[in-house]
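QA checklist item 7 of 12: single-chain prediction sanity check.
[x] sequence parsed
[x] length recorded as 493
[x] structure emitted
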Amino acid sequence: MASGADLESGNPLVTVHPLSRQLQRHALFVTLVKLDSALQPEPYLARAWQWDPSRRAVTFRLFVGLKWHDGTPTTAADVAFTMAAARDTMLGSPRAGDVAVMDSVLALNDSTVRIVFRDPRAALPTVLAELPIVPRHLLDSVPRARWRAHPYSTAPVGNGPFRFVSRTAGRQWRFARNAEFPAALGGPPHTPHIVVAVVDEAATKFAGLVSGELDVAGVSPTMAHLVERDPSLLLMTPPSLFSTVLAFNTTRAPFDDARVRRALSLSIDRVRLVRAAVAGFATPAAGAIPPGLPYSTAGAPALDTIQADSLLDAAGWTRVRAGAARTRRGTALEVTLLTVGGGDMAVEQLVQADLAARGVALTLRVMELSSFLATVRAPVKHFDVVLTGIPGDIALGHVSAMFATAQRGGALDYTGLHTALLDSKLAAARGATPAAAAAAWQAVAAELDATMPVAWLFHARGVQGRSRRLKGVTMDLRGELVSVARWTREDTP
């Protein structure tokens, strides 16, 4: 399979890279529970669970006999360790906000875990189906501030249906069937190995699919029709919880001014962006919550160049005539956009053209993924604006995924904006009863819209090309790799 960039990390507690998370969740590790096709929790490492009458605590009975790939047993201590690490501010995990609903996680014995929540819960939080368990015996001696740079990130030891074999930096990751994966958890995979090849050019991915060198690859939406025409290939367009956004550095001018942030957002023609850049395989983003999720709100995305001009004028960025550059006290409004790039960079160029029409000069700067992440996660921000993707999760979509709340790793943290009001609305949403949850999460989305640290561009749909000889493939909201352990490859198409 192809990946457009090198996998960010083998450690599931520190990565936001979508394919890395997919491989961790469905191949390399196991989660406490997993989701069925109706997105309801079903047994996985936890074979059964029992709620207390108060609904504030739940006790899990774990499968006995699962081993880490180095032969060490997986126990309840690993579960408690994982949840504690995810909450640790020194680690700054992107999942910190999701596990913040837990008051404590206790290993009662090797096969029993008790989770106590801060408030009564109507159901298990989906983070339990999305956050893989990590090995305590390999990571408990490593200072959490050093986890991202630790060798475990590039040579991970898991306990899932596939085990890590090797990595060639910037080129390839290899995983092999775990022949000892227990039958009760699904049994050994059908395919003997997975090779993840780093291929960042759209044409090269398509050529690899046609030649048979690749069995599955995300393809450029503009090339989807070519996949459909090839008799050896199938086009799959599963729903996807992934959004593309502009994240503004609110810690320095001009983006410390909310009027400038809103003006740039209002200047972007999202309908044209979806049509021209991704061939219609996305939904123009009217807000933070993607369509199809319980708390999504309908509405056309904003395009209002008159209001954009008015806001820029009010912020002091004026121009003497139509088509001229905007200036303030003799300084031109020039902005640098950081991007990982890839393909034809159609999104970046369309945004560049839209802003040029408002008198804003946008310069594109393409960066390698690890350098990009190091730059945007730095405590002191030295950039203007970044184009980035937000990988969401099933229950709350991208609103939840954005929040790192004063920690490293989330898209909101890229912007440097953390306010007491935003944090309080998030806390209220996480603790809301099911009846009040929709209104609470919409209040969070409304506050994001009011402060505009992030301009939502579009919510994506998956565009995957795969060989017809690859069988057993299911792709849905749980991810493109949800059935990877059941994949098989025929020798002939």
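[x] summary fact logged: The radius of gyration is 23 Å.
[ ] second reviewer sign-off
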